Inverse folding.
């Protein structure tokens, strides 16, 4: 079954977010080549690259799906609402864990910031996966 | 606890209305073609508004489009 424009858009966004921040967190953990400029420059670079690739990806998907693009209807809104709810739980759980870890282990600011960023990215991934699940299985 | 399931006759009604396509029905009731597909497949229960619009598009009562069956 062919994917709708909205599903393609979500898959594209998911792939770009996972790829860019997967590489970013690999550099944070020392598992991948890191760029000169320090922690802040690395983070800003990751955000910049994410925006550029996301915009490009969504343009390509939109051009490829042009006849299929329609305004979100009630089902799209319901799926988005449920996906945001799931993402909220992921983000809230992550924030709670982060607070506990920061208190117990007296984490450095660098690790605190990156852990918070990790949970934000994770919640975004949860949102995308939730949407794809509901589009496939029903809501 | 009682639970139920909604069944529909949309595919049959489309066929008997000049083989109306899902896209044509979607345009008439203001939803996407994918939503009409999901409703037909039982993967989505529409709002009352959309359900009534669908019945009006077919020119039949709501009960001829959707039926609710309870199971224990």
């Amino acid at each position: 079954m062919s994917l709708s424009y909205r599903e393609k858009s979500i898959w594209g966004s998911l792939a770009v977010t996972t790829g860019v921040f997967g590489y970013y967190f690999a550099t944070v953990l020392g598992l991948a080549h890191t760029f000169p400029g320090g922690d802040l420059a690395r983070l800003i670079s990751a955000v910049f690259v994410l925006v550029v690739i996301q915009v490009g990806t969504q343009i390509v998907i939109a051009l490829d799906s042009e006849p299929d693009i329609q305004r979100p209807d009630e089902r799209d809104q319901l799926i988005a609402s449920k996906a945001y709810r799931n993402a909220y739980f992921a983000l809230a759980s992550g924030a709670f864990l982060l607070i506990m870890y920061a208190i117990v282990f007296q984490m450095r600011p660098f690790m605190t910031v990156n852990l918070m960023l990790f949970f934000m990215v994770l919640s975004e991934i949860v949102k995308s996966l939730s949407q794809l699940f509901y589009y496939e299985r029903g809501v | 606890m009682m639970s139920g399931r909604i069944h529909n006759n949309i595919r049959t009604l489309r066929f008997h209305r000049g083989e109306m396509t899902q896209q044509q029905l979607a345009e008439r009731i203001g939803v996407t073609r994918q939503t009409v597909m999901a409703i037909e497949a039982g993967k989505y229960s529409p709002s009352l508004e959309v359900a009534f619009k669908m019945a009006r598009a077919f020119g039949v009562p709501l009960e001829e489009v959707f039926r609710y069956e309870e199971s224990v």
Observations:
- The radius of gyration of chain A is 17 Å.
